[in-house]
# Entry
Amino acid sequence: MSNLSSIVLRNNRKVAPNFSCDFCSNLNCLIKKNLDNLTSLSFIDDKKTIRCKKGQQFIIEGAPVNGLFFILKGVVKVFRTGINGREQIVRFAKEGEIIGHRGFGTEEYYTIGAIALQDAVLCYFSKDDLQQALLENPKFAYDMMLFYANELNKSESKVKSISQMTVRERVIDTLLFINRKFGELRGFLNLPLSRKEYADYAGTTEEQVIRIFSLLKKEGLITARGKKIGIPDLQNLKNEISEHHFYLDS
DNA sequence: CCATTAAATTCAA
DNA sequence: TTGAATTTAATGG
# Structure
């Protein structure tokens, strides 16, 4: 570890070097995927690399939209603040996904906020550069369109789950969703979330989630150690909402 | 919803 | 690596 210190010092200068798309290992990124198709690469040189510490908010509701964030590393939550000040988590996004896309074309101001749940690295592209790239590259535009369609689909599924499922089912559905999207690490969900965050996603309150978690523990459907939640038998948990079924897609 | 206690996580030495 | 300080979980009113 200590023999790397000279390299760290060299790279640790005030201005961190931009990650070049050419060397990026994130194959889920739509830009990386289309790198060969992109005719004018100038916008890639214009991108800004932004580092976010855990808990740092990088999109504020009401701020003007100037570009799009692509997640290079880390997990991020996107939320909207309701009238009573209650937070509704719209989605969780991980590497390769795009943030702030809904306000891209017409919206002038963000209607959502975004906070890094872990230390994150974001690639930020300006609206103008991206617009030009989309106009010039049909394949890239098509992939972006698929992304938008997919997001809309998920959003519609979520409306359905919130309006038609019981609180208990929504909490279970959220657990299954996190499991599907982020997987498990040594027996626990690979994304630590507070009970309040579960509540904000499932559209309920922190207390409800805590009480439902306690019940689920008694029933042996989940295990919990602090923020780490384990699912001993995925099928058993799925059965709890199988009547309505159709959980959201990853 | 709030208050209290138990538990877990963070942080700095 | 440890434990003190801070944050979060759990429960009952």
